[in-house]
Design brief:
alpha+beta, 12-stranded antiparallel beta barrel, 12 strands, about 15% helix
Length: about 210
């Protein structure tokens, strides 16, 4: 699943949904290569109807098609103003983590490796959901994510979104780096944009 350089990430349309699910495609072949789904307990699903889900912990499992084998997970604990979102491999080992910015009008967060070294920064326009993944000094482009058109009916009557994730060619032989870029897209939609709504910043409400 980590071989492609361009991914299409489509949120599944669900009504009265208590958790998110995304289908992941190779953007160049249109073949579905994976799925990302929140894995939360039944009690948590029930609590989400009464307590803001943005405040509660969550885990997202990314699995490869066709055998549904686990590739990596994204997890966040209870949200208290500034969260730490961790990425673990299929064996549970820490790959890296994301930390939200204390103050940011345009949105974004920092990406660290397992040794607490900053690997990248995610920056850009979250209101239109178009942003870049760059090195900490901002000089090297590692990838970009943008929202794409999902169809008139889908766009008008549901909050389901579709995203294009493009990884820079320099990372073609670096699966861990590609994993972090792909995870940044999923974390932005499933975690960070929700925190922005909780913080009262409606400018960062991207739907979903």
């Amino acid at each position: 699943m980590l071989e492609p350089m361009r991914y299409l990430v489509k949120e599944q349309v669900k009504f009265l949904k208590s958790h998110h699910t995304y289908d992941i495609y190779d953007a160049d072949t249109s073949e579905q290569i994976g799925v990302a789904e929140e894995n939360i307990g039944q009690i948590t699903q029930i609590l989400r109807w009464f307590v803001s889900k943005q405040l509660m912990p969550t885990t997202v499992e990314i699995r490869e098609k066709p055998d549904d084998s686990l590739v990596f997970t994204i997890s966040r604990g209870w949200y208290l103003f500034r969260s730490r979102v961790e990425i673990h491999d299929a064996q549970g080992a820490l790959i890296g983590y994301f930390k939200s910015k204390i103050v940011s009008w345009s949105g974004g967060f920092y990406v660290y490796d397992k040794n607490d070294r900053q690997f990248a920064e995610v920056k850009g326009n979250f209101t239109g959901f178009k942003y870049s993944v760059v090195t900490p000094d901002g000089k090297v482009h590692l990838g970009k994510v943008s929202k794409t058109w999902g169809g008139m009916v889908k766009e008008l009557f549901t909050s389901a979104d579709t995203y294009m994730v493009e990884v820079d060619e320099d990372l073609s032989e670096q699966p861990i780096s590609k994993m972090l870029v792909l995870a940044s897209c999923l974390a932005t939609d499933m975690i960070f944009k929700s925190e922005s709504r909780t913080a009262g910043n409606d400018l960062l409400d991207l739907g979903g």
